[in-house]
Write a structure and sequence with these properties.
Helices cover 48% and strands 17% of the residues. It is α/β, with parallel strands linked by helices. It has three domains: 157 residues, Response regulator (Rossmann fold), CATH 3.40.50.2300; 148 residues, Response regulator (Rossmann fold), CATH 3.40.50.2300; 152 residues, 2-Layer Sandwich (Heat Shock Protein 90), CATH 3.30.565. The strands form five sheets. Strands 2-1-3-4-5 form a five-stranded parallel sheet. The protein has a five-stranded mixed sheet with strand order 14-16-17-19-18. Helix 13 links the parallel strand 11 and strand 12. The protein is rod-shaped and about 170 Å long. The N terminus is likely disordered. The structure holds adenosine-5'-diphosphate. The site of adenosine-5'-diphosphate has 21 residues, from helix 18 and helix 19.
């Protein structure tokens, strides 16, 4: 019962997946031949094309190896057909005494019997000669592209309508002109060239072509030396010598040099610059100059192969002989041999230049520059802001000073009685003393000692009156905010001196309890006195307004940690708790004639001194104002 239940519960999605798997399995098992047939019908470009590449000395022999590499890469890139490139190397060209070629011919014959390649591509003169010679036997009807053949080595007699030639020209005169242009003091050119039959051919050609140079330079031939010996000589060349790298396939000792090892080891030991006319040798060892460019040969060769594979008749494909390309120089070699860039021909290209710091670290430098730019922008912005703030601060201090001055005048109005009293007292005594002295002088024997005493009293009273006026002047002086080191006990005492008479007049007990030690703060004494005066006048108003039994204002100074405190307490009604937060606001007043600016100015002054001011009610009644200022010692 449970088994049946399971079958029924199989979901439709699971069934679909099973069908898909079966389908895939069938698709994999269907014979591939039928699929190919369908594809072949789709496009003629599915047809495989076979290209036989024949190398002259070996697959890794420079410069031809580089031509072959470039040609193959381009063929594969451009071909719309799938390509089968088969490479063979004609090793016989290496031997100083050519060996029998027939076994190689038979080997190729059996490889391609009945299925010749679509194109035969020979690279270098020996390979061209070989394919021309054995065409009839191997590939009688196959089109051939004979590339990288020096035009002097093209075997024109054996060319057929089925051949395309991509020839080059070794312009030795141009190569030597270049040497004498960049190093005009050159006396000797050591010719590095091997001993294979091809290389021997070139020795004669170079000699013939350079005849017009006459005795301008001496040529030294290394062709009959083993490469080891060449290296030794290259290390000890006389001054004003250069090395000319012709070709080094096989040296006089029969040793074969593949790749660029030989040139590299020569470069490592040579005490003179090396010149060549082949791009594959350029870049690391040679100075440079006009040279045969790999790309020029490769482009024409690939063009020829493509056109032949596309069905064009080889006879209709013709190319001009490839000449040296525009001169190129290796910057590192120019530096090493102190060759000035100004001596190079116009249109020269200088390669392998060491990147400048800017080129190497461009992004980093750009980042740093932008960070610096942003930073300097920020700094100048901040400086501007700071300047603006300074100006604003100066302006606000000036306003504060002006406001404080105006406020002092109003305070002085309140002090008139006090001042009058303070002045009246000494002036009154002066008058009395002067009158007494007059009376004494009228007598027959005036008491000189007493008169002297009276005059001393007059002088003392005069000084007292002058002191009152000095203090009044100093309070009313219109000064800018001026910070100095002050002793707070004295500053407060002086302020109290100005109002004590008022307190007396109003029958208020004004007491002062200074701190036992000096309190040094930084501040403007006039401004601080004004604050204290204001607070005392307010306190006196508070005790006077209400009909208080105790009419006291107690001023004291104390040290609290690093701060100096001035406390002004009174026995008035205190501040209504709802008003405690507002008393320092401008224009807050509970007095009919009040302006409500006194405490606002007081707070501004104290804050400008980096201090604080607070108002509270004492538990036993009356208000307490506390000023705190930072001490300097
Ligand atoms: P004004 O004296 O012109 O009113 P102030 O700014 O000096 O201006 O004072 C603001 C208000 O603070 C006063 O009107 C008063 O209500 C209150 N006040 C200041 N000092 C005292 C004090 N010692 N006791 C009670 N109230 C006070």
């Amino acid at each position: 019962m449970s088994g049946r239940m399971t079958i029924v519960s199989v979901r439709p999605r699971v069934v679909a997946t099973a069908w898909l798997c079966l389908g895939l399995l069938l698709a994999v098992c269907i014979p591939s031949g039928s699929a190919d047939a369908v594809q072949l019908g789709e496009s003629r470009y599915r047809e495989l094309k076979r290209v036989l590449v024949l190398h002259s000395f070996g697959r890794e022999f420079r410069p031809w190896s580089e031509y072959a590499r470039s040609i193959k890469a381009e063929l594969e890139r451009q071909s719309p057909w799938p390509l089968d490139i088969q490479e063979h190397a004609l090793l016989t060209a290496r031997f100083n005494n050519p060996g029998p070629e027939l076994p190689f011919v038979e080997y190729l014959g059996s490889l391609y019997q009945g299925a010749p390649p679509d194109v035969v591509l020979s690279i270098g003169a020996p390979a061209a000669r070989f394919v021309q010679r054995y065409r009839g036997k191997l590939f009688p009807d196959t089109p051939m592209v004979l590339t990288a053949v020096e035009q002097r080595l093209v075997n024109r007699g054996d060319l057929t309508d089925n051949d395309v030639v991509v020839s080059v020209r070794n312009d030795f005169m141009a190569a030597f002109d270049n040497i004498l242009r960049v190093l005009p003091d050159t006396k000797t050119v050591a010719m590095v060239i091997g001993a294979s039959p091809l290389e021997k051919f070139w020795i004669d050609e170079v000699k013939r072509e350079l005849k017009p140079l006459g005795d301008r330079v001496g040529l030294v031939w290394y062709s009959d030396l083993a490469f080891e010996e060449i290296l030794k000589r290259a290390a000890k060349l006389p001054p004003n010598s250069v090395l000319f790298w012709g070709l080094m396939s096989v040296d006089a000792a029969g040793i074969v040099y593949e790749g660029d090892i030989a040139l590299r080891s020569l470069h490592a030991v040579a005490n003179a610059p090396i010149f060549s006319y082949q791009e594959p040798f350029f870049g690391g060892s040679t100075v440079g100059g006009p040279m045969l460019l790999t790309e020029d040969t490769s482009r024409k060769t690939v063009d020829a192969v493509m056109r032949i594979l596309g069905g064009e008749k080889p006879a209709s494909i013709k190319y001009e002989t490839i000449e040296f390309g525009p001169p190129r120089y290796d910057w590192r070699e120019l530096q090493r041999w102190s060759i000035s860039e100004s001596s190079l021909p116009a249109g020269s290209e200088i390669m392998f230049r060491d990147p400048t710091t800017w080129e190497t670290y461009r992004w980093q430098l750009l980042m740093i520059a932008s960070v610096i730019l942003v930073q300097s922008g920020l700094i100048s912005g901040l400086l501007h802001e700071r300047r603006r703030r300074r100006v604003a601060e100066v302006e606000s201090r000036q306003r504060l000073a002006e406001l404080a001055h105006a406020n002092r005048y109003s305070a002085v109005g309140e002090l008139t009685t006090s001042i009058a009293h303070e002045l009246n007292q000494p002036l009154g005594s002066i008058l009395t003393n002067a009158e007494t002295a007059e009376l004494l002088l009228k007598g027959t024997s005036p008491d000189i000692d007493e008169i002297r005493q009276i005059l001393a009293d007059i002088r003392r009273d005069d000084q007292r009156a002058s002191e009152v006026i000095r203090r009044l002047r100093s309070v009313l002086r219109k000064t800018p905010f001026e910070v100095m080191d002050i002793e707070l006990n004295d500053t407060v005492r002086e302020a109290i001196g100005l109002v004590s008479a008022v307190a007396d007049g109003r029958r208020i007990a004004l007491a002062y309890m200074p701190a036992s030690a000096d309190l040094h703060v930084k501040g403007d004494p006039v401004q601080l006195q004004q604050v204290v005066l204001n607070l005392i006048i307010n306190a006196m108003d508070a005790v006077a307004d209400a009909d208080m039994k105790k009419r006291e204002v107690n001023v004291s100074t104390v040290r609290a940690g690093n701060q100096a405190e001035i406390r002004i307490a009174d026995t008035g009604p205190g501040i209504a708790s709802a008003d405690l937060g507002s008393v320092f606001n401008p224009f807050f007043t509970t007095k009919p004639q009040g302006m409500g600016m006194g405490l606002a100015i007081a707070r501004t002054i104290i804050e400008a001194h980096h201090g604080s001011i607070a108002a509270e009610n004492q538990p036993w009644g009356g208000a307490l104002f506390t000023i705190r200022l930072p001490m300097i010692r």
